[in-house]
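Exercise 4. Each item below gives a protein and its sequence. For each, produce the structure-token representation.

Item: YfhO family protein (Domibacillus antri).
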Amino acid sequence: MSKKSIWLLLLGSLLLSAAAHVFFLHEWTEGRFMAGPNDGLSQIVPFKTFIYEQYSKGTFFYSWGFGLGGGFYSQLAYYYSTSAVFLLTMCAVFLMESFHIIGPPDFFFWLKAGLIVSILRLSVILFVSTLVYRYMNIHTAAAFSGAAVYGVSIMYFRHVVFWEFFADAMLWVPLLVFGVEKIIREERSLLFIVTLSFMLIHNFYFAYINLIFLFIYMVFRWMFPLTESELSKGRQLKWFIQGGGISFCISAVALLPAVYGFLNNARPVYQQEIPWFDFTDNILFSSRFIILPSLVVLFLLTRSFYQHRVFAFFAALSLFLVLLHFSPLAASAFNGFSAPQYRWEYVLSFTAGGVTGAGLNLLRNTHFRPVFGSVAGTILLYGLIGYAEQRLPISSGQLKALYAFILSLLLMTVIIVLLFSWKKKKWTRMMLQGWVLLSSVLVVNVYQKYAVSDYSVHQVSNKFLTSDDFNSEEQQQLIEKIKHEEGDRLFRIDWMTAARNNTPIVQGFNGTSLYSSILNEALLFFYWHDLKIDMGRESVSRFATLGSRSNLHSLLQADYWMREKNKSGQAPYGFVLFAESENYVVYKNTMPLPFVRTVKNVFSEKDLQSAPPLDREHAMLEGIILNRSSTRQPSKETNHIGSTVMETIGAAYQQNRLTVSEKTGGIDLIPDRKLLGSGDFYVHFTIENLDGKGFSLKVNDYRTTRKHGASIYKTGVNDLVIRVPKREKVSIRVPEGRYELKGLALYEEDYRELKMAAGKEADNPSFEWNRNKISIDYHNRSGEMYMMLPIPYEKGWELSINGEQQPVEKANYAWTGFALKEGINHIEFVYYPPYFQMSLFLSLAGILGAVIICRRRPICRLKNPHFKEKQNGEN
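Answer:
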């Protein structure tokens, strides 16, 4: 291609991309944004804001502000911490900020920037895809039309709106195919190595999906040789294995920590039955994942096209992927053999783009009669499917309007195809190719309006983002008041809006909640199993609050508790009013514990294996719990359920079966009057809806929710511990239905252990935390055995005391502890991502290997000069 052609193609890609975003460009002028109200506002934009803030400060690996503390480099690799697109964006933003072109980028900046980045990203996708299709010997204009079918697709906008980083996966598919073809046809592997390396660095999850597609692509390529002079399969395998090994090494510095973060996550096994096939999705009219353009269907029904290898290859591959789309089992395989997720269909859009480009090439030399037969078959297929679907009772007015829209596009496609087949004029060819672009733009803009914006995204507006449901000025003023009170001390605030667990990132404080697909397994088990902390909402991807349990608040530095005023009665014991506004209150802990704690008592996890969480809390206050034997026996609290009167309200309870016959009902526990006074009750029980329904649960004023049995986000943990202030009656309430309710227990907490720990005179050591390094100087005068830090335990921390390496131990189930020496302890605690040194060495070795095997030859040609189709060559 000439330089002029390349510049024209770049301009065309940018204009087409902008046209595809017309709806959201208009929304932008109306104060609404291109981001989903759920994950978009709760994960995507907050994580961008957080990572930029950390990286721009020179903090690349660890932050105490990431949830309860964590290595965000590995845990956020699924999102943006190693994303090539986001890193490039950050560099541009950092330069603009450095030269004072923009101010410090905040949440609103990254929310607005998403639209600009999307337009540029889609432009690159269109440009690169055109080059790849052109390399497959498809004429440039037809290749650009095929690229439009790929890039300007509803899957792109579904991804970019709801989970923006998903859309980056579409960048790598054409480049990966380009690299594969360069090996097969020219025995050049540099493009393959560079693409695969960046793809593995960028996002391990979509690299996994793209590698499955790569395997399928290679199998079909071997079935459909496209040129006369392709490498033998053996030599191809040699180059693929060699290039794959080098790419793995190059990417190791990002890939290995990311994979560790994924493996160190905890997800319950998906237990629902996964069927082989489910044909309910309508990919011609109303699918949420992919709508095949009518021109693609028409080409697939044109028999004569299959005599040409390029078309036959793309058509066979597309039909196979269509079959996989209707298989929940395949959706599970693409999702790591977990719950079925339909995130991979962008590869089907890519092969459909190949069908479009190859078909447009062939249509120029095809007679009118076979085209007319294909048109008739296409109309019949659409008519049958549309008629059958419209007769279903689920059909709605909006759905019928969508069907009418698709059928009108089909009618125009048919008219233009027949006109071109009849006339074979330049203007009719331009009309057809222009119609491919226009129809693609129309479909995605209609999709953005009715399936995206009207569905939920219209809520994402300036008004909502400054409301009490997200981040109001009133809330921010209270947060700033707390910060002013505490200064530089490390502390946490137990506060979040609605169900937005990443409120601390949005509002700029260290909190007690986090929402991410990748979380520290030790923390999740701490919540689910070890301490059984109810989060107010069951979910595998979140942790939040500390259940208003004062012991945990003090242990984890969560010394402030902020809520709406109508929930102020749930404040933890020992917290007093600190500040209030019109709608909110803030309570402050009167029994805080130091950040760095030293202890003499060591308890064994084994000795506490059958102990209730309250006993474990007391052991954490009196000493340290380690996974080793100990002669120190923990104290045991009394279960008072035997002296508690039990009454049913609107329900029947027999043999662990609770049947609620009224709208709400349950059990009242009436404890012995001797237990009443100051302090709290800890109520234990296991509950599950026998019909698999989700339900809300109330214990006195405390409310939580449980997911339905088929939810892919259900934890599978039904053992609950609910803390409530002492009252004469503890009321457990659930909606009408059948439940299994067992293991009832009632414990009294008078906070004697917390008061003793808070009143202990301690020689609080000085410490300094600088990025990924903590320095502590401690003079052990009193024979303390262990030091504990409220930092979650995870691989990557390295400890040295007085210059000697020492082991880091998992203490108190999920936290960090280590043995002390007598006398002076100069402690250095440093964090690097897991396997970082080894992975850095592998990356350097991989780069050296790539330099050695890739001789100085042109990286790629935009069109293979030796291309000659194996059968019935085409021009």
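Check: DSSP finds 27 helices and 25 strands in the chain.
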